[in-house]
User: Fold these one by one.
Assistant:
Number 1:
Amino acid sequence: MKKILVLGAGLSTSSLIGYLLRHAEKEDWQVTVGDVNLENARQKTGANPRGTAIPFDIFNEQQKNQSVRDADLVISMLPARFHPMVAEACLEFGRSMLTASYVSPEIRRLDYLARQKGILFFNELGVDPGIDHMSAMRVIDAIRQRGGKLTGFRSYTGGLIAPESDNNPWNYKFTWNPRNVVLAGQGTSMYIRNGQVKYIPYHQLFRQTEKASVLHLGEFEVYANRDSLQYREVYKLPEIKTLMRGTMRRPGYCAAWDVFVQLGMTDDSYTIDDSESMSWLEFTDAFVPGTNGRSVQERLATYLGIPADGEIMTKLSWLGLFEKSGIGLKQATPAQILQRKLEEKWKLEPSDKDMIVMQHVFDYEYKDKTYRHKSSLIVIGRDQRETAMSITVGTPLAIAARLVLNGTIRATGVQVPTHAEFYVPILQELKEYGVEFIEEEE
């Protein structure tokens, strides 16, 4: 019997744990799910005799070591900052670890030690990062094998609301960590276009957007991710002329979100005095210049140069930012206050379904001609448990776990799924779960 330890039982683990439990009898696995909230773990394992729920505290050294030592494979779904702590125990007891997170510098430094131990630290096995890498490399490798030369690569992903549940002016609801959405893009974004490196500071990010059209879903807008330049090395494209990765939203979202950026409402670096006694109108007014007798709405529109009766103001009014009701959040940062309002207005209703949209655009040369290839993915969630986010984050991770345990994947060290030995079997099985790209050649 092989023992699998899953650390963390958050929203995105439903499909992961469900897959492991469905295969547990046939593969002879015992699946232990540990979470700081025991009830979360119990909900994921249910009454399955092959599943066990335990309370797990990453800061309890004895418990962490005991749990890792008793396992054959560890899957960490904890926040990424805790992966190195799990990895240390895995090194001590010779256990491989899988995650859906980006490879951090701390994890990357463990490559040599992991190889020496003969264990695998397999990362970036979710949707973004994860499915994006695998699907991109499949096409990139195919173009190379036929003798083509990549000149441009753009990759966009969006965690969105399904069309049948899209019923607010923002065309958006929270389908993953709200805090990450509020703080998204802070810093400077970098990409390369026509051989020239481009930089977009945060205050310009939501003004410099791209357009994308995805199959029957129609138009989207895209803002650049933090650092696209590093993917020249990841995808082995050192001489590529254009490379950009970005996040997808429905048209109109970015212009409205830019209001929060320009006003400073996404700032998380200081707290607002007496925030618990402020109204939403007072909160908004605090960021708008002037007190000349005109309404907050009028002054805001004038300050930012937007129509007072336009689409952007409609979105802001719908959120309730001009209401006189109280915030009720003590000693909070602007970003925390904004998040509170968005969580109220952008929450998923019980019948809502989420959606993952991904598109890669490859420009390449072959025999003195230029071509464009598009790979597009649409995944609609089934319900509140089997969300599109859960399916696309958890399923590739679970498939990878099975391939490691049955010996199909024998790699050691710190790895990401950009090699054919990884992405071919994972992408093939993902088709069974409705995760399949539509390929178009122009």
Number 2:
Amino acid sequence: MAFHSPCPELLAPAGNPVKFQAALLYGADAVYLGGPSLNLRAGADGFGREALSDALVQAHSSNVKIYYCLNAFPQEKDLGLVRTCLELLSDMGDACVDGLIVADPGVFFLARKILPHVPIHVSTQANTGNSAAAAFWRELGATRINLARELALGDIRSLARAVPDLELEMFVHGAMCLALSGRCSLSAYLNARSANKGSCTQPCRFKYRAKAMAVEEQLRPGEILWEVLEDEDYTAFFSPRDLCLVKYLPWIWKNQIRAVKIEGRMRSAAYVALTCDVYRTALDDLGMGRFRPSLYLHELGLALHRPMDSGFFLPGAPSTTARRWDCAGRMTMVGHLIRQEGQEKWMVQVLDRWDAAKPLELVLPGLRRPVVEASEYGLENERGEKLAVAHPGQRVLLSCGHPSCRPGMFVRQDQPERISPTR
């Protein structure tokens, strides 16, 4: 399988420094992050000036780029904060971010004035769905466009051919919004927290209960599209499946998409590690002339909990054409190695219930998953007492002599009793 363009950049979410480290370890080419405000994940911890400076040093020493999110839609009262943020970035001089992600024309205008040397990437929130819109942003000075998630592959191909001198980026994995390119008012209506200012409370993922409801579309008589029965528990029936386009990476590379983006600044560091590992391995495989979609989907299905589908990517109505994959979620991330504490001893942050009588699987880059038998490792508390079970929130000592152990790595266990019900 030969390609005539560079490998797409793997762009990963970094909601805080821990997730940033996970993205670097598991193969991201670039990360996107934000400050405490003015980005569409204001609920993420974000990066203050000192944390951002540290991240830039580490990223650039690893040949990884950092893109800074200013993609909220500010009101007039917010413009002072926009200017302050841009001026703080400007004060960083040459050690600045590698790009700004914006959606609002006003923020774009201010960014060009205050940071004229920093490339601007147009956020998916701008809902760019045609070549004229892409050319509009290019004429203003944008260097990259993140395409609207509502585009099918034919739309993407036509748009890419019409603007060959503009970098295109697209989401390939993660949460899909119920609204058009994320422009949702549910959160503002229910909780006075605007999704368009980064404060979405995700009411589409809340659970609701209807006394009785069955929805049938007029032209499809006899086919129930959604149904909630009177005696059921609360149901997240507004909740979309997660997007998953790993199977279509050959098409994406062939059509010269410059960057593939993983959603998830509000998701866990373990999620960042897993998705980066899968997509990094898939891209590397393609570069070596092989492709193993069943392996990638199997790995995602074992570890994630939300069902996945191909969204709007395939032609036709997604309700009938989307390729769907259910996730078992049985391989649970139970620990995150923080630092080495001595020979073959590691300080570990416990993420989920960890049964020391069960084998352990190391989550290594490249989809390598060596198994450590229960007899080959041990857990201790801070007093040196052996533990049969460790619980979320604890920090424990892991005794393990496997040569692949290193800080930042995750470990997991098979927990079939935790299998998520299919939605």
Number 3:
Amino acid sequence: MFIRSSDFLRAFSNIFYRVVAFMVGLALMPGVVGQINHGGQPEWQIDIATIPALRLPDIDRELLDAQDAVTDQYKEAPWRFGVEFEVNVDPSLEGLWTIEGNERVWRMRFDASDALGISFFFDEFRLPKGGHLFVWNAERTDFIGSFDHRNNKDWGTLAIGQTMGTSAIIEYREPLAVDFPADLHIGKVVHSYRSIHRYAQSIEERGPYGNSGNCNINVNCPEGAPWSVESRSVALIIQGNFAVCTGALVNNTAQDGTPYFLTANHCLGNPNNWTYIFNHEIEGCTGNTNNAPASDVISGGTLKASNAGSDFALIELSDTPPPSYNVQYSGWDATGVSPANLTGIHHPSGDVKKICFDEDGPSIQNVGGAAVWYISEWEEGVTEPGSSGSPLYDENHRIVGQLYGGTAACSGSVNNGEPDWYGRFDVSWDGNSAATRLRDWLDPSNSGALVVDGWPEGAIAYNDDAGIQVTGIPTDFTCGAEPFTPSVLLSNSGLNDLVSATITYTYNGASSESIDWTGSLDQFESETLALPEFIVVDGENTLDIQVLNPNGVSDENEFNNAANVSFVTSLGPTIDYELVIILDDYGSEVTWELKELGQVLFSGGPYEDDLDGTEVVVDFCLTDGCYIFEISDSYGDGLCCEYGEGAWTILDENGDEVDSGGEFEEFDQSVFCTEISAVGSILDAEGPTVYPNPATTTIYMDAQDWLGSDVRVFDASGKLIDRFVMRTASEAIDVSNWSPGLYTISTVHRTLGFSQQRLIVE
């Protein structure tokens, strides 16, 4: 094993740090929402003295403080909070393995004198299903985890967040029987001497939440109330021992929730190894030591584009923030029109989220070779190191830039009156290639739009903005001639009271109809309106609805004005079938489809995890014909039997089993017909070539376009005797042990459908 301290100080003239490609997450206290984890807790009641320990070298705090006194004055570098040590810890060679019940358990302790917290970077991380990893502190007051196979990333690394205190224990548990042994290696450990955690610094130093100056304004003070929507976009970035930058989620013209994240180019290291912390803020204006900030974390991301000419970087996060995070995707303005006033939302020195205001608007300048918005002085609040990369919003609540640098700071409890500068979004919009500009990513359909508002709630600055949602529409494939009556939820997203609007609708291509609505809706209020009853037709039904002319004027936001829905109905004879799925422990891995001639009629999943034995029942109404049912498991271990006793069954109209399964790998398929007479034309489809026919010892199947097909072989009695997936262009099958006679080869492809061929074995 070796330990090597990282270099601490670059020359003062070079204040742009090359950030180490490593991230460190925020510790999570029990009961506080934190880094995405998968439940459970460590077995931490053991004698810590029995756990092998690695002691990190002592740090030179006087030297670090002297360095920080210089570099903390500049925003062109992330704010440092710790010292990184390179280690070489291989669980197969270090630490202690024990057998506890039906699990193998590995533990190792890491000690750092006078540390506020300890963080870890796994440069190799791949866990089997059933494996769980925790990090906990010696005081048994703080743990992170569990991490399991769902935390495996394509790049094979993982940063584990900070646990508070001078000693941390890593605990890994796996069943005695696993698909493969865990691949784990710890490459770096960080000793935190300054911290973003609420216990990091004393109240006497900087206040209850640590690090920023006293003139900063908490985002949840009354001044920040108009910005409560946009603030949900902003996140703290943790990236190695230089640690702290800020960034924000941004919307795109498709408004599809792709997790694009905007920050500064000078913050860049390797975003794969960063941690993005949302909702690191406190309720109210001041808070106290008993009121911990929330911290919701995403680990890892991929760089999509960057450019030093406007100091921007665009990252796609490795995971979409879950609904519990309640994030917003900020809108933006790429026109280059100078804003009338500006607002910044940021994490100064890694502190809880703050806000600042400029009332005069910016000038356009070039600083350090970058095109920037130049703010001569903030009227309220300031920024600090750690705020780098944070979004700058115009008066319309749209991002127009990200923080590049500046000298603004607190002077005691007041603003020092110094400037800041932000890379311009409009300059970032265009570049020489997709890797150097924003428009390829934020306008994926090449619509030409230069202004987009936030998603899902949109901007809050429109004067007249009506939106609609439609409910009561049949979904998927439906049976019978029952009419339906949809409802329209009319909402006011504008600043002005909504007193009138026109709702138009077109059903199945008929003439457009309209409803003239009048009433009174305050901002964000809504009212449900019933549309007329509609009669379904055989086949596809479509309904197009729009809201127009709020308050008699053009709608300022057209993104929420229309709803287009469709569904398929059969008016002829139908047959009731039923799908029953019994979930295993990992329902999130399960999806399925029911198709007819390549058209998906029904689909389902993914489901929630940890619901082993839960029954999911889906009713199908089917016309006479033949169907393909396909169920997939993203992990590749099916529904049974290592992690639950899951299964699937299809039942016909009499409740008799049509087909069933559960033990498979990536996917399982079933082909069935409601009436045998319906099989003829479908099964005559040309499938893979089978030769020789008749055969004696070996037959060959030439795949053509049928690679990946599920192949089943039945004997003359209908008994299944062989099943495989076509993996090669020419599949060889040994038939030497087959009894002479007639066989049927059924081939099923996800898109091509299925075919049957007869084979004679002599």
Number 4:
Amino acid sequence: MKSTSSALTPRKIAEYCKGRFTPIFTEGEVRLLYGCLLDLLERAEYPPYRGSGLDLQSLSAMLDIDFERLRAYRAHLQPIFDAVAREVSNVALRPARTASRSMRSKVTVPSANHADVPTTSTEKVRKKPGVRPRAIVEFPEPLDTTWNDPATFGEALQLHARRHGETIYHLYNAVVRPEDGVNRSTLISWGRGKKVPRAAISLEILGRIEGRYRLPTGYFLSLSGTPDRAPGDFDLDDISPSERRRLAWHLPEDFNRRPSQEKAEILNWVRTVILSGSTDYRRYQAAAIRQRYAVRFSCASGPVRKTSPARTPDESGIVIAPKRLNDEMAELLRFKTSTFAAFGMQRNGVWGTETASQKVEHFGLWFGAFVAPPESEVQGLGVDPKLLTFAMMIFPQVWDWYLHWRERRRGFYTKWEIDLLSIAAAICREETGWLRQSPRMGSSLRPIEGLVTEADINAVQSDWPAACDRMYKHARRRIKEIDRVARIHRDPFEPILPVLEAPSPVGEYRKITEEILRRMPDERHNARAAAEAVRAFLMLRIGLHTGLRQKNLRELMLCRPGTLPTSERKLEDLKRGELRWSSRDQGWEILIPSVAFKNANSSFFGSKPFRLILPDLGRLYELIEAWIERHRAGLIGEAADPGTFFVKTAKMTSTNAAYCQNTFYEAWRTAIQRYGIYNPWTKRGAIEGLLPHGPHNVRDVLATHILKRTGSYEQASYAIQDTPDMVAQHYGRFLPQDKSEIAARILNQVWEAA
């Protein structure tokens, strides 16, 4: 039996905190920890545990102490919290022992004459001192039927508890069940505004409180600003942690209580519609991604993807380019990207940074098809990587093998094959072809079984120009043949058809930004989530106002108010635009030099920069300023500031917060998944039938909207910085059904005027 002297006391807790906590925590943190320990002891409550260890995340949220600091000093925290847990267990047993001792002390010792008379029958056990607990009423009557809604969740919770004559302590006893595993301190933290509910059980308890006080469903949730869901709240044990995190946002609060069949239905819907997008192309792409094959060049610019150490090169399907092949790739990049062509060489056209990166990836896939083993899912040719060389592209039979291989994989030809053949023709073209001007590369050729013989090599080496001419003619012939049968595998409009078919496409798409505002997290409790929501809002709104391509939007520089804007000349050198405050127009201005655009030479620009004053509508200016002042720096953290307006959420291992093409696309796509797609299971999302998509689709929305309203290809081209011919080619499908309506609207104006 534990002696009284060994019981945990406030004095012992104070001594422990002084000896173990003072050297490692600040004075304020020590006070918080001491108060928490004392509070748990006085209320006989167990500390928060996760398994056998202390739940540091809950403790961090409860005390508002940095989680990383708590984790670093777990060895100092665990013993004292374990001691509190042991004392709470002992307290649960102590009253029974105390009562028995009390009874024994008050029993009257019977005399010899009354040995048969029971002495305890008339004894009264002393009642527990203090005020008797208040009875719990299922639906208490309010003391006041009118009230003004507070601005915060904590204030609202306290208000409605007072309206019904209850304290948070009593409310806890009324709505929290033993099996919930929620401490009283959790509700106290809610009322004090130190925590907001996030876990599934917490949201369920909110629902009980709303029912108890006869409040509308979702009343507290609308004030709590809960940003996302904890992945651990759901029964998803057979799902990987990464997928669990993606799924958590899109699952209903009562997911765990639903039947197994319904759970499977929900998971399947979220996976196919929200996460992957249920189009034929997305399904093909998802399957193709799992079959990894490529040759990776080290000369490529930008971040290099790391191959998982758990997978060998053969398992991953990724082969590192041999030195010779990598050097040839570097030579081609210099030829197509340098300011001047090398002495004695001619070229036609220059690759920009993104085009060069794209070509490197495409060449990697081209060579990867030859390297992949025949017995693998890719069903490649199994060529030794050491035999690979760009000189292989001079053989028509090599290209025919690749084209047949592409047809086997996809089932038909697309514009992809036409683009690749165009490259083959370009590098073999007379006068300007890179391969045509590099006959020395013929010495790198080696026989490839079943594809290139020694005789083939000797023939091209003896007459390199003639071999290039043959390949050029072959490529042009194949382009015409494939163009005749090529199919469109990806309909770029399919994900946003509900928007494009609406009477007002821009008004329909704007609903997504309004949904973001409705579900904006509380910055005080969820700073990062609030910053990411603001970023998503600004991405979509600025995209809707400008119609910029992803590159131009992503690379926008930031000029803070009060600082000198970047000169137009420097922006031309950088080939990117800038968001700055215009004192003349008293508004936020976007200025982008024409050279920064993909179609810089089109008639739209006329060598003049793109300039637009953003309208101060729908909280746009308010959130731009909040983004610049607070949110942007919070997401950058310790990473290097890229100077761009949009920055990604820098992780602990990040060194740069700059977006690349893929990460910006994923950020936009995530915003659509969370706020755009209507989810029938959670009742969240703005547009029913919408599918995941990227930033380029906003240009489709703008062009289609203006085309529907005006019928003018020219005016539609103004919205997306393009030419009327290009608009007519891509968006004409949305005009025919509206031509009569446009004509009628114009004619009706005459009658209305009369």
